[in-house]
Design goal:
binds iron/sulfur cluster
Amino acid sequence: MDLVEKVKSISGEDVLSCYQCGLCSGSCPVRFAMDLSPTQVIRLVQVGNIEKILESNTFWICSTCFACHARCPREINITRIMEALRQIRLRRDQDKISVNKIPKEELKILPPIALVSNFRKTTA
Ligand code: SF4
Ligand code: SF4
């Protein structure tokens, strides 16, 4: 799953319905301290540039106040998107196993359920 799909999957929000009106940024009480505005974050998710967001402080600064969600004409829950970004960032580099690194001979004999269980528990 790519990062854009991951944001959508974790947040449950349809970012493509955002038409960049800017109300979320105008409503945000901590916008002044953010590298990227909430509107910019949504745009970057739309175009698939998650890396730029993950380099910013925006999702850490978000205070989860829901003011942006309350005013969004598209009823996008930006707060949930910020939370999804925090989760993705926190899980980064936490993968303990990689399927590409498991020798083919071992893959043949490992029980599938053990593999699935490990991927669920140890990868982001
Ligand atoms: S308020 Fe909603 S529609 Fe407007 S820019 Fe923010 S997310 Fe997009
Ligand atoms: S939930 Fe976060 S992004 Fe939205 S207005 Fe509040 S602080 Fe800003």
